[in-house]
Amino acid sequence: MPRRTSLRVLVAATTAALALFTGTTGAVAATGPSPAAPSAAATTLYYDDSQAAEFRDAVAAGARVWNENVSNVQLVRAGAGQRAQIIVLASDGWPQANLGPVRPGGQVRVWMGRQGVEEGYDPVRIAAHELGHSLGLPDVKPGPCSSLMSGSTAGTACTNPVPNASERARVESNYSGTLAHHAPADGRVLVDAP
Fold first, then answer.
1. What kind of fold does domain 2-191 have according to CATH?
2. 167 is catalytic
3. I want to staple 61 with a disulfide (CB 3.0 to 4.6 A). Which of 124, 135, 139, 158 is the partner?
4. What is the pTM of this model?
């Protein structure tokens, strides 16, 4: 019996070390609710909302939307001193973000624009939309409210923060298999103004 216990401890330690090295772990992804059960190889991306000001709750809700709808990548709030792949900032302009897909070790920015909120756009939809850019989704304009990436063209009455099947599939594809085989983040800044 002691030998089996030692083997279990060794396997657990090896798994934890591999997760730290690769930036992937199923255990971290499981810390939040996720009806779309993350795969063992889910990529964990950390976001830093320390500069998001009044948008912190909207950003957390937007991250939850993605975590509940995809399984190959999970968004987790970075702890103090932890390097984040997605930096979220409050700004006075229109919402915007760097186009991903961001990878562990890379970094993109999301600007939660007050101008969009002042015009009547929903902050959670904005956050989910801009995080979608970080995950590699371009704008789909014009588009209906059922398309998260239609952004502002869906109008201020649209509060849908949930990606449609096509958007979910593209993000799943962006983070499937070995990340080394996927293109790095595009990096362009996409401004979501009407």
1. Collagenase (Catalytic Domain) (3.40.390)
2. no
3. 124
4. 0.77
